Each structure stands twice: as C-alpha cells, then as structure tokens.
Amino acid sequence: MSELISKIKTKSAVEISNDATEHKLTTIEGWVKTRRDSKNVTFIEVSDGTSLKGLQVVVPAEKVSSGDIPDSTMSKIATGASVVCKGYLVESTGNNQSIELSAEQIEVLGEAPADYPLQKKRHTLEYLREVAHLRARTNTIGAVMRVRSTMAFAVHKFFQENGFYYVNTPLITSSDAEGAGEMFQVTTLNLSNPPKTEDGRVDYSKDFFGRKTSLTVSGQLEGETYATALKNIYTFGPTFRAENSNTKRHLAEFWMIEPEMAFCNLEGDMKIAESFLKYIFSYTLENCGEDMEFFSSFVEKGVRDTIEHVIKTPFAHLTYTEAISELKKVADKFDFKPYWGADIQTEHERFLSEEVCKSPVIVTDYPKEIKSFYMMLNKDGKTVRGMDVLVPRLGEIIGGSEREWRLDILRSRMAELKLKESDYWWYLELRKFGSVPHAGFGLGFERAVQYVTGMQNIRDVIPYPRAVGSAEF
Ligand code: 4AD
Ligand code: MG
Question: For a pocket test of ligand 1, which of 184, 254, 269 has the largest count of ligand atoms closer than 8 A to its C-beta?
C-alpha cells in the first residue's frame, strides 16, 4: 500500500482518476481501521501497515443493494477485520485525502469480533503493552517499528560504506564483558537438585558447556579480537542485563551496536561516534518523512526539528572533572548530590546536555573506579580514557573508550578489581601478541530509536520488551 500511497502523492488526483477511467481495477489488502456508515455510502479506512496513512475505501449503497457487495460481507466489516478490496481509484470529495478507492468487490478474510482489543479510540501506551501482539497495528507503534527498521538499515549502511566488517559475537559466554556481574545465567542443570562438588558448591563441570555460562552483556571483548585482525569491525545484536532498574530507559534485553577500531585512540573514537549518530539520524529523517511528521506532531512536539538541529551542531565536549564542577554549581537541583568520584546520574546527564551545553555532549576521562576494567588508564593514574555521549531528554546514549592495550597495566587493573585472569586469558593474549591502540563504543539501539521518535518509554520501541518482572509473549 505504501507504493500506492506514494504514487498517489506523486501523481495528481486528476492523473489518478484518468487511470481509473481506463478501468484498471486496483486491489488493496489490509486491516480495517475504522468504518463509518452514512445513508448512501459506507467509508472504510483500510491500512496494511506499510505506511502511516491507509486508504479510504468507499462502498456506495447501490453496490450493496445490487448484491455486488452482499450484506453478509458488509456485516463482517468491522475494526480489525482483514479485507481484500477491489475497485477504482477516484478523486475524493472528502477533506482528508485526495484519492479514494471506489469499491467493486470486497472479501473479508478474517473477521474481528467486538472484543478486538484495539477498537477505535485512544489507547494508552501502558494498555498497548498488554496487547503487544497486536499493538503494531496502531499508528504510534506501527510508526515506531517502521522507523526502527529504517534505523537498523542505516546502521549497516554507515559501517559497510566506511570499511567496517560486520562480526557476530556470541550470545552465550563465559566471561563478563563489563565486569559488573549483571548477567543472566544459562544452564541445563536441574535447579531443584544440582550436582555438587565436594565442598558443597554447584558443580558446573556437569553443566551443558562444562562450565558456568551466561547471556552476554556486550560483544565488545570478542569484538576487540576481531578488530585486531580485520581493523574495523562492528557488531549489532542482542545483549542482556540483569540490572534491577525499572526505568524508562533500561531493558533487560536490548540491542547494541558496537564498533571497534584498531589503530584508533579516544579522539578517533569520538569522531566516529558523532558522525555515526548524525548519519543514522539524517538517514531516518530522509526516509521516514511521514512517520517523523507524526512523531513531531503527536508524540514529542518538534522532535523532528530537534534532530535536525543535532545533525547540524557539533557535539560539545567536557571532561568528567569539568562536568562535576558544572553540576556542583547547581547541586541543589539534584536528588543525588554530585561530587568528584561519584557516578553521573541520569538527572545530571540531562542537565549537562539540556542546560549546560544545549546539545549532545561527550564526557570523557572518568574516575577509574566508576568505569570498566578494560578502559585505558590516563597518566594521572586516576582517570580512564572513557567517553559517554549524553543527549537531551535521555542522557547516555553511547558509552565507549580507548582500550587498555598495555598488558602489565591491564593485568594490574584486573587484579585491583579481583577479576580472574583465567576467565580472560584470551583477552590478555591480544595484549601479548601484536598489541595495538584500539577503541570502540556501544550504542544502545533502543535508546537511539527512543531519541529519534521522542517516545518516552523504551518499552515502546522494541517489539516485546523484557524488563524486571515482565517477559510476557
Ligand atoms: O555503557 P555500556 O554499558 O557500554 C558497553 O557495554 C561497552 N561494552 C560498549 C563498548 O565500548 N563497546 O552500554 C552501551 C550503551 C549505553 O550507552 C546505552 O545506550 C545502552 O548501551 N544500554 C542500555 N540500553 C537499554 N537498556 C539497558 N539496560 C542498557 N544498558 C546499556
Ligand atoms: Mg555506560
């Protein structure tokens, strides 16, 4: 239907009705959004989800009285039913569309009884999460999912056109990439009676993989092994975090894009992150015009202009130390009082990008204590070459760093953090054999979709959200 709609947009109504006078029957398939009956005519809005706007199908009363479209068919046409309509495209006299389909035949493929959960009225997004198997039929979620698909394509396009190879890193892993212990365990052991070692602990040597395994929190470590072989790589896949955070920007299962570049430092990393974000944003604006218009008008006023502004504006830069001193100036504003050494909270992230910089801002050089073990240590011995990209409304959208590529320093960092070298032996070998400076970052795909669409809750930009206490469907 989207092809038909764009044809309608590019051709004038007169040209289209000329086609009609040539008696070309047009067939459309879709789901009934609304039905409205008046004395001489029935209007049916049909949409097949390929674009925001559906097509108005008009059934003149005489088609029904003549039996071409029997009463038995008309009685089945209700919101949610699936239909095949054949007819002629004609100039519309209504205000909402230039063209409509004057029906000759209608077939109802699947009825939708009165308990169809998406009756014509405004539903809350909370309610729609309860009917996630049907919610993509709504304007809002349909638009989100079309944008999501386009953004995924843009991600691949950017990297493929810039010499990055796509690498698929494992989802089941025996190492904790972030060293934060927020992993979902994968096991086939009998949980009510697991095998035990002599000292009474669970004997993972009897588990499926012969060791303890989990779902990955990030493909970065394996990504690094490929970057130090193919130079520039990226991953794009699901990641899992057993974080107990019930917020509008956290999921337990989310998709992450992780590029990794050999012979690259933090400065190079930040440049790529900025041009990557700008590329996927502009690709989406160019290719999702109608859906973006919708978000801008009905979801987050002006979001389209905001994204356009972001594309044109260079990102701001602050070190963590500078960021903390900015935050301290207005400490009263915050629930969490900022001080050097403390993690930057969402409220701080938003303040820095919304108020201090009025643009996306890249914060660098965090205290080593609040960042992962693999980040390169600065000369001061206190801070690391990490960077977070913070955007207005959302806070952190990207996290990345230059990696510690010096074996001795990496080993001493791991020892400080009590990470077992035996779990990371292969990662350490990258530093032993032909080590090079390298850097990368991770973009949370859902955060990117959230940012572009203006959707408030991350659970509404992924088909089936998984979060604490919620894994229906
Ligand atoms: O900052 P994070 O934890 O960084 C990493 O995982 C690194 N290994 C990335 C790298 O350098 N290759 O996560 C990266 C991004 C965050 O900035 C955020 O956008 C997203 O992933 N993210 C989440 N998105 C949704 N739900 C969650 N629970 C998320 N946790 C992180
Ligand atoms: Mg982070």
Answer: 254
